[in-house]
Design goal:
Blueprint: H1 10-20, H2 24-44, H3 48-76, H4 83-106, H5 110-130, H6 135-155, H7 159-188
């Protein structure tokens, strides 16, 4: 997921991988947002599916934070940074965001659905900023964060939700690829 290709110089490759561990304020904001949203919605809908979502968010975010701190320390000592595990946890976190939106839409509690979908959409911005050096990772995380919204919208039998969600996922993906290509063009010049 983070392989940058054979023609990328080592210093650029190291900088791209390092960018995956940077931007701590964006990471902290995402962690606080997803945990707070899952707790708030679970207080409205205290069912096993929502309780499982809170537990999943807390475990994933806590594990990612511990691994992030360990990676920073290891990097300073010139040791491996557990990049593959960190990326896997990021993908699982994206899936947990999508899971929360999925169950919120299917609950037909439209306040819960609104909160979870707004949170998922906001997380896409952070995903793009934090991981711009790994476009395949970003694509997977966007798909896992917003894709379940589209599936749940289709399952909800609310036609307007289905068309709107499909439009937004498609647009967000196109915008990301546009900026990714633009950044690569600017780097090359």
């Amino acid at each position: 997921m983070c392989y940058s290709g054979p023609d990328v110089p080592d210093d650029i490759r190291v900088a791209l991988i390092g960018s995956l561990f940077g931007t701590l304020p964006i990471f902290a904001g995402g962690v606080l947002n997803t945990i707070a949203v899952s707790i708030a919605i679970t207080m409205r809908e205290p069912t096993p599916a929502f309780i499982a979502w809170v537990v999943l968010e807390v475990l994933l975010c806590g594990t990612r934070l511990v691994l992030l701190v360990a990676a920073h320390r290891a990097s300073r000592r010139g040791q491996p940074t557990y990049t593959d595990v960190y990326l896997l946890l990021g993908v699982l976190w994206g899936a947990s965001v999508g899971y929360g939106a999925f169950i919120s839409i299917l609950s037909t509690d439209w306040i819960a659905a609104t909160l979870s979908c707004l949170s998922a959409a906001a997380m896409v911005g952070g995903i793009c900023f934090r991981n711009f050096g790994a476009p395949r990772l970003v694509a997977i995380m966007i798909l896992l964060s917003l894709g379940p919204c589209c599936i749940a919208a289709a399952m909800s039998k609310e036609l307007i939700l289905t068309s709107d969600m499909t439009f937004h996922v498609n647009r967000d993906t196109q915008v990301f690829w546009f900026f990714h290509k633009r950044i690569n063009f600017l780097r090359a010049t």
